[in-house]
Amino acid sequence: MTAAADGRLAEVTIDTLEKLAFLFASPVEAAPEVEESLLTTVRVEFTGAFAGGLEVSLSGPVLAELAANMLGAMDGEPLAPEDQLDALKELANVVCGNMLPALGGDEAEFSIRAPHPAPANRPAWAAPAACCCLALDNGICRVRMRVDAGAAPRSADGAAPGSAATR
Amino acid sequence: MAVNILVVDDSAVMRSMIQKTLLLSGLQVGEIHQAGNGREGLDALGTQWIDLVIVDINMPVMNGEEMIEQMHSRDELKGIPTVVVSTEGSQTRIERLQRLGVRFIHKPFTPEAIRDTIKEMLGNEVFHDRSR
Q1: Angstrom distance (rounded) from CA A19 to CA B107
Q2: Considering all CA atoms of chain B, what is the largest pairwise distance in Å, rounded to the nearest integer?
Q3: Cβ neighbours, 10 Å, residue A30
Q4: pTM score, whole prediction
Q5: Residue B125 gets which letter from DSSP?
Q6: Contact A8, A99 (CB under 8 A)
Q7: Whole-angstrom distance, CA of residue A139 vs CA of residue B111
Q8: Do A94 and B20 touch (CB under 8 A)?
Q9: How far does the CA of residue A99 sit from the closest CA of chain B (Å)?
Q10: Residue A48: closest CA among B8, B93, B11
């Protein structure tokens, strides 16, 4: 969509990581080349004023730290994979819920479906409406948001819709 | 007076975070019950004595707004103090819920937001002295 949408997505994700899990992240200009198999990804779909989806991918150490911090695990032992996945699902849910008003405005209503794991060999979204890549101490967090064809969200900088660029 | 609480959220991690926040808030906590959606939440309300409901909006099977509407259609449930903890960004929906008397806390929340909201709803009496 626009650089403003990318910037807003990065802001929302940074804020969510900090408040939800005490993780501090900063945007990186160029997303590093990372094998998809080294990332864990969840996707969440939404419908309402417009429809689309959002996916969040974390590298392994970041995922473990996210879950441990959210659950207050103190013993240093890694949490069970299902707990780590549940933490990532909640991160995606919160980022999506906080990003939608930036695109649709405060009056727009959405229904956010339950997040689900996305396999590494999933079909990629051709033209995300917004995307960002963040660097953390132990790895990366990558977020992409998709708005379906025919949807007309207000862009994060107030620009006319339909200006999505292929990424 | 210890407060029995029902936490309704489809994320087990979020239910655990809310439970830990409640236990650290200074609130005199009795029993904490959990449910994964609005339907399970209503079932719990039918079988347990609950003093406070904390509920998410977006959940499978029955969402939080439907659960709250059903609570308000039943005399025995409509007076239970209810807090919505959600990512909901629609002012239209938030105001619709607030007209039903529920309080709203935005995710990601701070522990202070949970504590202060419960204090405003239930009063200082349900908190240990040191947290007043």
Answers
A1: 9
A2: 41
A3: 6
A4: 0.88
A5: G
A6: yes
A7: 27
A8: no
A9: 9
A10: B93
